[in-house]
Design goal:
UBA domain-containing protein; 8 helices; about 45% helix; mainly alpha; Helicase, Ruva Protein, domain 3; Znf-C2H2_OTU1-like_C
């Protein structure tokens, strides 16, 4: 039987295609993949239409939402794996030379908005790139989905000219809304704490300057005729 998935030998995850395996490798640095005859599940919730890729994911969805009915559409989604690497745009074969890795270009306006909300630059850049620079909402959705990734706060590096399509969220709209609110609240609190810390630093600097200011200000209280009095006394 032809393989219908690729299995990661490092974590056991099943991937539907070579593209998924490449994205998994970029996110996790895992590189041990083998062809598998076990398909990636496609369990569709009949209540909200959320797709689940595994029994564990469907159980978690049931626990979160109370939805218990799923339709198994695995056979419809399963396709034979094609291991042939795509050819370059000019038709030339891969030279085998290592590709240059660069930080991807992202929407600077959206990046500034995310940073203003309190998200670290690396996390915001990674989220914008893998969300396809679609929108602020799509980017926050990506952060919700991947907030537990070990490399969530690492600046992404991708081959030159790489294009990534926006990923579809696997949470329900209700779950996404709740998680978005939670993330915004965390980011807001983090920003407030940073502002308070900066304010305390400024106050400390002001306190350190006070004794010097008093000392300098003391010269203003010296009588103007003190020098004249001293001169008369010497005479």
């Amino acid at each position: 039987m032809a393989g219908v998935s690729l299995q990661c030998g490092d974590c056991g995850a099943l991937l539907r295609s070579v593209d998924e395996a490449q994205q998994h490798a970029e996110l996790t640095s895992h590189s041990n993949f083998s062809e598998s005859t076990e398909p990636v599940l496609n369990l569709i919730c009949t209540t909200c239409a959320k797709p689940c890729r595994s029994k564990t994911e469907s159980d978690l969805h049931t626990k979160r939402t109370g939805h218990t009915d799923f339709v198994d559409k695995t056979s419809e989604a399963a396709k034979p794996i094609t291991l042939e690497a795509p050819k370059a745009a000019d038709g030339s074969e891969d030279s085998g030379q290592p590709q240059e890795m660069v930080v991807p270009e992202v929407d600077k306006k959206l990046l500034e908005e995310l940073e203003a909300m309190g998200f670290p630059t690396a996390r915001a850049t990674r989220a914008l790139h893998y969300a396809g620079n679609a929108s602020l909402e799509a980017t926050i959705n990506w952060i919700v989905e991947h907030e537990n990734d070990p490399d969530i706060d690492q600046m992404p590096l991708v081959p030159v000219n790489t294009k990534v399509e926006a990923s579809k969220p696997s949470l329900t709209p209700e779950e996404l809304k709740a998680k978005q609110q939670e993330l915004r609240e965390k980011a807001r609190k983090k920003k407030e704490e940073e502002e308070k810390r900066m304010e305390r630093e400024k106050e400390k600097c002001g306190e350190n300057l006070t004794p010097l200011s008093v000392a300098l200000g003391g010269f203003d209280n010296i009588p103007a005729n003190m020098g004249q009095a001293a001169a008369i006394h010497l005479e």
